[in-house]
């Protein structure tokens, strides 16, 4: 007998029939065990789902907390000029804790305080008997605040002598304390000096005899003018305007007027080719890479102090990179972009225009550091287009980078990155504030004294106007530059990678001409001098008088200043900076002719000038005019 086809599908097995035929009470009795089994089987997937939800929420909270922290830091940075309060606090507590646990240092400071009090009392007694008594302490050579004769009269002599003694004591109190890290010691000493300078007797009308004398002579008109100057300065700063008088110096009108053409442009640079000024020129052109923190025309100021004009008059074909002033849309431009779109793009254009000719490359400040990186990468890749490399006030080792390192540590950089994150760039105001702090006596207090107490406006010069024409720096590039070079010193220590491979300055074979300036607060000359330890090429080192800018802009027409230099040849032993100063030849005047002769000695015989490339526009171009 055949069964219906569906009978086998509808009839449950015996075991299932037995189970399903159990009374209802029995199924209820087994529910806990069945539920436990279901829970055990289901809990892994449920746990994972809950974990995913928790992770999703944590990512959101992390992003929100990151935005909150960064926004707060950026807001605080606007009030502190970009200085990290946490960084300053950690330096202070490091100093205070070690000083508190150093009773011997405390005894020494107490003894110094007593001796300085006795010196001051003795000087006060001598002043009462001798109006022109010899001072008990002399200011530092660079301190000109108390140089006038009015400061020799009582009671002003007591005021400034007491101030200098107090300043000296605080220097002793903030230095040479065992256990304090060197950077923290430098920060505390620097901060104490800045605070003391705020309360210098030269900064206040009633304690400044020269300001009081001027007030009596003018019947107080100087104070009226000073108030006008103060209000005008505040109005200009609030409106983002340049200082008074700077509008008289406009690129293309009375500065940056050396004849030339913009022959190439990308999103980062314009390349300028300058017209020849002689009937014949050296066959090797000169490419100048300025720092992107400044407008290029520091090297092409007024005709009488233009390095570009000087080089063209010496028979060189000169090319200049003019950097674009970045905005928020350029926030992701990095150091590699500056190398690739800057130095390398310019070299490629020149090579196409003047094939089979090697190039003298020169870099100023950060531009010199970038050029050194590019030259090292070219040497690694067997690219031999460079005839020579000139580094003008440019550092390649950052272990002794001067007082700028006060603002370079993990806490400070994290704080600064949050400030740049807000806008996508570091604004020129923050950079200007940092540089003014480094030279507060010259750039802040002396200016305030002359403009607001004396009521006088210092005449604007081309260099002062250029100095007020600062540029911005992209977020990513500036962060990389500070971390990889200033903080980690990756270039000098062989960790910097370019285009997928490590670079070493020791691979550069082109001769190097390095220039340092004696009073450089941005690139101290002893730091620039370290190129001797990093490069195996022939090195000519030149040390010129002046500062970071005035030392480089040293036109022969000025007929002032001096420089010293040496040539290092193969096999010559290293001399440290102290030894080098003793053996270097000293010469009077501008160093420009020395460099020109050095370039000429490494160039071929003069030839006819190259044709000017097809121009996009006349020099100085468009990028230099961006504000």
TrEMBL record:
Top-level division of the source organism's lineage: Bacteria
Stretches assigned to coiled coil: none
Poly-beta-hydroxybutyrate polymerase N-terminal domain boundaries: 66-105, 142-311
GO terms of molecular function: hydrolase activity
Positions of the UniProt region annotated as Disordered: 1-26
Keyword Acyltransferase: yes
Keyword hit for Transferase: yes
Alphabetical keyword list: Acyltransferase, Hydrolase, Transferase
SUPFAM superfamilies in the cross-refs: alpha/beta-Hydrolases (SSF53474)
InterPro entries, per database record: AB_hydrolase_fold (IPR029058), PHA/PHB_synthase (IPR051321), PhaC_N (IPR010941), PHBC_N (IPR022211)
Biased composition (Polar residues): 8-23
Transmembrane stretches, start-end: none
The name this protein goes by in its record: Alpha/beta fold hydrolase
Organism: Methylocystis rosea
